[in-house]
Automatic annotation (TrEMBL):
Function: Component of the Mediator complex, a coactivator involved in the regulated transcription of nearly all RNA polymerase II-dependent genes. Mediator functions as a bridge to convey information from gene-specific regulatory proteins to the basal RNA polymerase II transcription machinery. Mediator is recruited to promoters by direct interactions with regulatory proteins and serves as a scaffold for the assembly of a functional preinitiation complex with RNA polymerase II and the general transcription factors.
UniProt source species: Trachymyrmex cornetzi
Stated name of the protein: Mediator of RNA polymerase II transcription subunit 16
Keyword Transcription: yes
BP-aspect Gene Ontology terms: positive regulation of DNA-templated transcription
Gene: MED16
Subcellular location as annotated: Nucleus
Length: 1102
C-alpha cells in the first residue's frame, strides 16, 4: 500500500474486491480516498505480482512495477479519482523490479525552528535549496521514475510529453558487476542525485550504497552510478549458526540521505539498527600530509542504536517528509512484527518505544479479546502519511488499518493547538492535503484553532494573503464543517470563496478602452466608485465608462447561472438580516459582517446591471409579486445600507438597520394576526383591552421608580458609609499605640476621596439604570408588554363576532359606504389584486369595495408612535376582500404571512378567470390615503362609531407631532424595512442545501467508539451526517441537486455526476458547447473541489 500527498491510498489485492469465488486471481491495483475508503476503484489488473507501488510528489501519478520487469505510469483522467489513463510503459525483460522512486521536482519547504514563532510566513517557512533530479531545457524539472531490479540493474523512465513516444528510458548497472539484491531503498539528495542502499540478504555481506545521477541529453537520458562507503551490521556473523537475513532497508527520511534503518530476522526474533552517514577525520602518515593543517575528512557510516524484538519484522515504515530544518530531523520508525503487533520507536531517543498496538488485543473494552484473536494474521506493509499524522497498514487477509499518530516532535498524548496551527500553515504554504490533520483533532480545539489560524493569516502581507486566499478559505471551511454548530459558518465561508472566484472571473472579462490608462482598469474604477455613498445602482453607472464593460452577448449568456447565483446570494443575505440579532452571538465568521465581501457583491450587481443592458436574457430571474419591482436596484440599495463605506476591512453591519428590521418583524407579526383574522372574517379581540390597562399601570410604576431611585440610593449609601463604616474603621485604628497625630487628617482625607469615587460609580450606575428604564417605558408604550399575547381561538372569535355581524345598523352603514366608494373606481386596471407594500400605489379590491378595517387599525394603535412612523402604514390598514361563505374555513396549521399572502393571490386569480368567462368586470380603486389629511372612508367589522371617531382624533394629533420627523426619515425607513418584506415580494431560492454525507471526517466521528469497522462497497449508516442549516423563512425548497460549481439544477437523482470525496458536493460531468469564459471557469475547479477534495464519478445505481 502507498499513501499520496493528497491522502489517497493505493493498494494491491490477489482477487477483485467483489469476487467471492476466487476466479479473478492475479494482482489488482485499487485506489481509495481516506475519507471514503469503502469506495475503492480499480486501476488495473495484472498477471504478475506488483512489487513496487509509488505516488509522485504532487499525488497525481502512480507507478507500478512487477516481477516480470513491467513498469507502468498511470495518471488521473481529468483529475477523476476513479478514472485513470496510462501514460506509458517500459519493459525490462527478465528483471524483477524491487524498488521505484519518482524524480524530485526540486521543491522543498521547511519550518525554520529558530523562527517558528515569527509572524510572517516568509520568515517562518523557507524554500530550501534542493535541486531537481533531472533538469530539462531552462532548468525545468522533468518527470519520470528510477527503478532498481534484483540483478543490480538501475533503469530510468522519463516522460517526454510526445504523443508518439510518450516516454524514453535507459538502463545501467549499479556497480561494476551485477550482483543479487533482495532489499533496496531509494532517497533524494539535495544536489539532484539519488542515494540507493541495497542488500544481498545475508548478514555476512555488507550494506552497499550508490550515488545515482540521471541526466537528459536531447531526447535520451543517461545514468551514472558511483559507489559510496558500505558497512556491515553491528552484530556481524552469527555465532550460533542461526540464519539471520536482512529483510528491510529504509531511509529514515526520504529527503535525508544521512540515516538508514536496517531490519534483520532470525529464527528467534529480529532486530532493527540505525546507521548515520558522518564526516570523520582520518589520520594520514606524516610523509603524505599536505602543507596545510586541515585534516583529511572522509564520509563513513556510523552505528547509532538498535532495537531487539521477540518476533520477526514483517514491515517497516519511516517518515516521508521532514517539516523542520533541524538536523537530525525528528522522526519515527514504526515496525510490524509477525505476532501482529505494531511498535512506534523514536529515532532521536535511541529507538525508544513510544507506542504499541496489536491486532490480537480487544479493540473495545466491553468485548472479549478472543473475538478479535487472529493468530494467523500479520501485517504485510505499512505507510505513513506525508505529514506523519496517520499510519496505514495492510495485513495478509485483505484488511486495512488506519492509526492516528502523535506527530513528530510533540509531547503529551494529543496534538497541541500551536502545533496543529503550524501544520495547517505548512499545508497552506506547500499545498499538501490536510485530511490526516483533521483526523487527529479534538472537537473542543477546533474553534480556537480557527481563530488562531485566522489571526495568523490576517497578519501576513497583502500579496501573501492574495496568493493563499483560496486555499485558506478551503482549510477554514473544512475545520468548521467538523462541528455540528459550525455548518452555517462553513456555508458562509463557501459563499465567500465563490464570491471571490466569481468576481475574479467577471473582472477578467473586462477590457480597458484605449483612452484609459492601463494602470487603472475597469475593475479598479468600479472599486473606487463603489466606495462612495451611492445607493442607486443607476447613478453608479453614470460614473463608469460603458466601453470598458462591453462583453460579447454569447459570453454573457453562458454566464447566466453564475449571475443568477450572485443575485440569489444577495437575496439570502438580506432575508437573513432580521434574524441576525435574534440569534445567540457566537464566534467565527459571518458573511453579513464582512463589509469587504458585501462590497464585492455590490460590484457584481453593478456589472450585472450593465451586462443586462447588453443582453437582457442574461439577467437573473426572480419570482416576484409585482411586475414593476426592480429587484437588482432594490438589492443594491439594501446592500449599500448594510455597509458603511471607507470603513475597516472587517466592518460591522449597521446596527440601526438591523434594529429597524426587528421593529418591522413585530410589524410582520401583527400582519400575521390580521391576515388570519381576515380569513376568519372576524375582528373582535376583546382581551387586548385588559392588557392595555395593565401596560398603563406598569408604565406609571416604572416612571415613579425612575424618579425616586437616585435620592434614596444616595441617602442609603451616605448613612452606611459615614455613620457606620468610617467610624468603625476609625475606632479600630485609633487603639493602636503607634498612631501618629497627623494620621487622623490623612484618614479622613482618604475617606473623603473614597466617598467621591463611590458617588461617581453610583451616578454612572443610576444613569445606566435610567436608560434601561426609559427603554422599557418606550417599549411598553410602543409594543405593549415583552410577553407574547395569547391569541383568541377561532371558536371564541366566531362566537363573539356573531353579535356584531347581525346588527342592522352595521349593514346599512356598510351598504351606504360601498355605494360611495364604487363611484370612484376605474375600469382600466388588471383584475388580480396584488398587495404592494412599498410601491406607494393603492391597494385594489376585486369586488369593487374598499373596506378599511378600522378595528384592525385600533389594535395596531397599541404600538403607539411606532404605528405612526412605519412607512407601511397604508398597507397595514389592509384593504381586504370580503370572503364568500365557502372560503371561510379554518386553516389546518398556523400560517405565515407569506402563505396567507399567496393564498389571497390564488383566490383573486380564480375570481379573475371566472369574471372573464361570465363577462363581469372589476373596477379596482386608485384612491390614496394620506395619514395627515384624509380620514378613514369606510369601516368593516367595527364595534361602535364613537370609539372610531375618538381614535381618529388621537391619530390626527399624533400625525401632527411626528410629521417633521417622518419627512426626514421616511425614505431610509422604507428601504431598511424592505429587508423583512423581501420574502413577501420575491421568492427566496434555497442557496445552501443540507444534503447528507457519509464520510469519516464529519462531526459524527467525535461521537463514535473507535475503532470503526468498515466494509468495501457498503456506506456505514453510523457515519451518515445531515447538516442543520439556518434556513430563511419563506425560502423556496426545490429538492433538486445543485451543481456546486456551475450552480445548475441537476435533478433530484442525477444518473451520472462528479462527487467530491470530502464535502459530498456534486457537479456536472459532461458539458455542452461552451464559451471560453465558462470553459475557464470549469478549469478553475477541474483539479479539485472548492473544499480541496478529490472528484470521483458517482452513479445513481450505486
Amino acid at each position: 500500500c502507498s499513501l499520496s500527498s493528497r491522502n489517497i491510498v493505493a493498494f494491491t489485492t490477489m482477487t477483485e474486491l467483489d469476487d467471492s469465488s476466487g476466479k479473478t486471481r492475479g494482482c489488482h491495483v485499487y485506489v481509495a480516498d481516506l475519507n471514503m475508503p469503502w469506495h475503492a476503484h480499480k486501476v488495473l489488473s495484472n498477471k504478475h505480482n506488483i512489487t513496487a507501488l509509488e505516488w509522485d510528489l504532487p499525488g497525481d501519478k502512480l507507478v507500478m512495477a512487477d516481477t516480470a520487469g513491467n513498469v507502468q505510469l498511470w495518471i488521473f483522467k481529468d483529475h477523476i479519482l476513479n478514472d485513470w489513463i496510462l501514460i506509458g510503459s517500459a519493459y525490462f525483460p527478465g528483471e524483477h523490479i524491487l524498488g521505484a522512486a519518482w524524480f524530485h521536482n526540486g521543491k522543498k519547504t521547511g519550518l525554520v525552528t529558530e523562527k517558528k514563532d515569527s509572524i510572517h510566513y516568509s520568515e517562518k517557512f523557507n524554500h530550501l535549496l534542493f535541486a531537481p533530479s533531472v533538469r530539462q531545457f531552462g532548468g525545468r524539472a522533468a518527470e519520470g521514475v528510477l527503478v532498481v531490479s534484483t540483478t543490480g540493474m538501475v533503469g530510468a523512465i522519463m516522460i517526454t510529453k510526445d504523443l508518439q513516444n510518450p516516454i524514453c528510458y535507459s538502463t545501467e548497472s549499479l556497480g561494476n558487476t551485477r550482483h543479487r539484491i533482495t532489499a533496496v531503498d531509494l532517497c533524494y539528495g539535495k544536489n539532484g542525485h539519488f542515494l540507493v542502499a541495497v542488500s544481498s540478504g545475508s548478514i555476512c555481506l555488507p550494506i552497499r550504497c550508490f550515488r545515482v545521477l540521471v541526466r537528459k541529453n536531447d531526447d535520451k537520458c543517461t545514468i551514472t552510478s558511483q559507489a559510496l562507503p558500505s558497512f556491515f551490521l553491528q552484530d556481524g556473523a552469527p555465532k550460533d549458526n542461526s540464519c539471520t537475513v536482512v529483510t528491510h532497508l529504509k531511509f529514515v527520511v526520504r529527503e535525508d540521505a544521512d540515516s538508514l534503518v536496517i531490519a534483520a530476522n532470525s529464527e528467534s526474533g529480529g532486530f532493527v539498527e540505525v546507521w548515520e552517514l558522518r564526516e570523520k577525520s582520518q589520520p594520514v602518515h606524516k610523509l603524505f600530509q599536505p602543507k596545510t593543517l586541515e585534516p583529511f575528512k572522509t564520509v563513513v557510516w556510523q552505528y547509532q542504536s538498535q532495537y531487539r524484538c521477540q518476533s520477526p519484522v514483517t514491515a517497516i515504515a519511516t517518515t516521508k517528509l521532514s517539516i523542520v530544518t533541524t538536523l537530525p530531523p525528528p522522526s519515527y520508525v514504526i515496525i510490524a512484527l509477525a505476532d501482529s503487533s505494531v511498535h512506534c520507536l523514536n529515532r532521536l531517543d535511541c529507538l525508544k518505544e513510544v507506542a504499541f498496538s496489536s491486532l490480537n488485543t480487544s479493540w473495545r473494552p466491553d468485548e472479549p479479546s478472543n473475538k478479535y484473536f487472529k493468530n494467523s494474521v500479520s501485517i504485510a506493509h505499512m505507510d505513513l502519511s506525508w505529514l506523519g499524522c496517520v499510519l496505514l497498514a495492510c495485513d495478509t487477509q485483505g484488511n486495512m488499518y488506519l492509526y492516528k499518530l502523535l506527530p513528530d516532535g510533540t509531547t503529551g498524548t494529543s496534538m497541541s493547538l500551536s502545533y496543529a496551527c503550524t501544520l495547517l500553515e505548512y499545508c497552506l504554504v506547500t499545498g499538501l492535503d490536510w485530511l490526516d490533520i483533521l483526523l487527529c483533532l479534538r472537537s473542543s480545539m477546533i474553534e480556537a484553532l480557527c481563530e488562531r489560524l485566522d489571526v495568523s493569516f490576517n497578519r501576513q502581507l497583502q500579496s501573501t494573503q492574495q496568493y493563499h486566499y483560496i486555499l485558506f478559505l478551503s482549510i477554514k471551511t473544512s475545520l468548521y464543517r467538523m462541528l455540528v454548530t459550525g455548518q452555517n459558518k462553513a456555508a458562509d465561508l463557501s459563499s465567500l470563496l465563490m464570491i471571490h472566484s466569481v468576481a475574479t472571473a467577471f473582472k477578467s472579462l473586462l477590457r480597458p478602452s484605449d483612452l484609459i490608462s492601463h494602470d487603472k482598469g475597469p475593475a479598479e474604477s468600479l472599486a473606487v466608485v463603489i466606495t462612495d455613498v451611492i445607493t442607486d445602482v443607476d447613478k453608479v453607472l453614470l460614473h463608469l465608462d460603458p466601453k470598458e464593460f462591453t462583453v460579447e452577448p454569447s459570453t454573457l449568456q453562458s454566464l447566466q447561472q453564475l449571475i443568477q447565483w450572485v443575485a440569489d446570494l444577495a437575496l439570502n443575505l438580506l432575508a437573513r438580516l432580521p434574524e441576525q440579532r435574534m440569534q445567540v452571538k457566537t464566534g467565527g465568521y459571518e458573511l453579513l459582517k464582512d463589509h469587504k465581501a458585501l462590497n464585492t457583491v455590490r460590484e457584481l450587481l453593478v456589472i450585472i446591471r450593465i451586462w443586462g443592458l447588453l443582453r437582457p436574457s442574461c439577467l437573473p430571474v426572480f419570482l416576484r409579486s409585482a411586475d414593476n419591482l426592480d429587484v437588482l436596484a432594490l438589492l443594491f440599495c439594501l446592500l449599500s445600507k448594510l455597509v458603511q463605506p471607507n470603513g475597516d476591512t472587517q466592518q460591522q453591519v449597521d446596527d440601526g438597520l438591523i434594529g429597524k428590521s426587528e421593529i418591522h418583524r413585530v410589524h410582520e407579526d401583527i400582519m400575521t394576526t390580521k391576515l388570519a383574522i381576515k380569513h376568519k372574517d372576524s375582528l373582535v379581540l376583546k382581551e387586548n383591552r385588559l392588557h392595555e390597562k395593565n401596560y398603563t399601570i406598569q408604565q406609571s410604576r416604572l416612571k415613579r421608580c425612575e424618579h425616586l431611585s437616585l435620592p434614596w440610593s444616595t441617602l442609603s449609601v451616605f448613612v452606611v458609609y459615614w455613620l457606620v463604616f468610617c467610624p468603625l474603621i476609625w475606632a479600630i485604628c485609633y487603639k493602636f499605640a503607634y498612631w501618629p497625630s497627623y494620621w487622623s487628617f490623612l484618614f479622613w482625607a482618604v475617606a473623603f476621596l473614597i466617598w467621591i469615587v463611590i458617588m461617581c460609580g453610583l451616578i454612572i450606575f443610576w444613569r445606566r439604570f435610567q436608560v434601561e428604564q426609559s427603554f422599557k417605558i418606550n417599549a411598553i408604550s410602543k409594543y405593549g408588554s415583552d410577553k407574547e399575547r395569547r391569541p383568541l381561538s377561532v371558536h371564541q372569535i366566531l362566537s363573539e363576532d356573531s353579535k356584531f355581524l347581525g346588527t342592522k345598523k352595521w349593514n346599512d352603514f356598510h351598504e351606504s359606504e360601498s355605494k360611495i366608494v364604487r363611484e370612484n373606481l376605474r375600469r382600466d386596471l388588471p383584475p388580480l389584486v396584488i398587495h404592494k407594500q412599498i410601491s406607494g400605489e393603492n391597494i385594489e379590491d376585486t369586488d369593487g369595495v374598499v373596506c378599511v378595517e378600522e378595528n384592525e387599525k385600533t389594535h395596531l394603535s397599541i404600538a403607539g408612535d411606532y404605528a405612526q412612523k412605519s412607512p407601511l402604514q397604508d398597507y397595514l390598514k389592509l384593504v381586504t376582500v370580503s370572503p364568500s361563505e365557502d372560503e371561510v374555513k379554518s386553516p389546518k396549521t398556523p400560517m405565515s404571512p407569506r402563505d396567507l399572502f399567496f393564498i389571497d393571490l390564488i383566490h383573486e386569480a380564480e375570481r379573475a378567470e371566472k369574471s372573464l368567462k361570465t363577462g363581469t368586470h372589476f373596477f379596482p380603486s386608485e384612491t390614496t390615503e394620506n395619514d395627515s389629511a384624509e380620514t378613514v372612508k369606510s369601516i368593516t367589522n367595527g364595534t361602535d362609531m364613537e370609539n372610531v371617531e375618538h381614535r381618529k382624533d388621537v391619530k390626527d394629533t399624533k400625525n401632527e407631532n411626528v410629521k417633521d420627523k417622518e419627512d426626514n426619515k421616511l425614505k431610509s425607513k422604507r428601504e431598511s424595512n424592505e429587508c423583512c418584506l423581501l420574502p413577501n415580494q420575491i421568492m427566496i431560492p434555497q442557496l445552501h442545501q443540507g444534503n447528507s454525507i457519509t464520510a469519516i471526517v464529519s462531526p459524527i466521528l467525535f461521537y463514535q467508539n473507535l475503532p470503526l469497522q468498515l466494509e468495501y462497497g457498503v456506506e456505514p449508516e453510523q457515519l451518515v451526517f445531515t447538516p442543520e442549516m439556518n434556513l430563511v423563512e419563506g425560502c423556496m425548497h426545490s429538492g433538486q441537486i445543485v451543481d456546486t460549481i456551475r450552480h445548475l439544477y441537476l435533478g433530484r437523482q442525477p444518473l451520472l455526476v462528479k462527487q467530491c470525496t470530502r464535502c459530498g458536493g456534486k457537479a456536472q460531468v459532461q458539458n455542452m458547447t461552451r464559451t471560453a469564459a465558462i470553459r475557464a471557469w470549469d478549469q478553475r475547479w477541474t483539479r479539485a473541489c472548492r473544499c480541496g477534495g478529490i472528484w470521483r464519478i458517482h452513479k445513481a445505481s450505486q
